[in-house]
Amino acid sequence: MNNWQTHIEQAEQSCRQSGERLTTKRKQVLAILLKADKAISAYELIELYSEQHQRTLAPMSAYRILDFLESVHLAHRLNTANKYVACAYIGCEHSHELPQFIVCQECQRVDELSACSSNLMALTDEIKQTGYQLSSPQIELTGVCQACLKLKQEQVTTTIEHRTQQQA
């Protein structure tokens, strides 16, 4: 069984325990998010849904499903990019108080980082001291992933080798 299928089963169990229903379309959308190698927009989701299921998913339905998946902590919306990712911790027992993400600025890969509630409390206290009220505790960081760093290094090495050969 694939990892994404295990996550779907865990998501179904979580929904049952909380009195929610993970319908077929919701499962299909969650599966697309789980299989995606990067965050995807609602319209990219609609396109992928059409390709994988040979059926149309209306934009309103896509947004409703994404809202549902967010509400039951199965997916996250990246505020800075207005894109969605599946929760990396489906089926885990820990609280989802402080979602943190690192987004590769080259390939758009997203990894969810775990954070403890004491970090959230400290951050919330510091925010209150500055006179703000926190509307979303989600943290989104950007950087360059290992694969992109390696690719950049290979490109630099190839360029240097090419120039050296031209000079010889």
Structure report:
- By secondary structure, the protein is of the alpha+beta class.
- It has a single domain, classed as Arc Repressor Mutant, subunit A (Orthogonal Bundle), CATH 1.10.10.10.
- Helix content is 52%, strand content 13%.
- The chain has six helices and five strands.
- It has helices at 3-17, 24-35, 42-53, 59-71, 117-129, 146-167; strands at 75-78, 83-86, 100-104, 110-113, 139-143.
- The strands form two sheets. Strands 4-3-5 form a three-stranded mixed β-sheet, with no helix packed on it.
- It is globular, with a radius of gyration of 20 Å.
Order of helices and strands: HHHHEEEEHEH
Overall number of domains: 1
Reported for the largest beta sheet, the result is: 3 strands, mixed
Could you name the CATH topology? Arc Repressor Mutant, subunit A
Helical stretch count? 6
Distance from N terminus to C terminus (CA atoms, Å) equals 55 Å
How much of the sequence lies in strands comes to 5-15%
General form: globular
- Helical content band: 40-55%
Low-confidence stretches: none
Query: Could you say which structural class the secondary elements and strand pairing correspond to?
Result: alpha+beta
How confident is the prediction overall: mean pLDDT?
88
Binding site for Zn(2+): 104, 107, 145, 148
Protein name: Transcriptional repressor
Cofactor: Zn(2+)
Keywords: DNA-binding, Metal-binding, Repressor, Transcription, Transcription regulation, Zinc
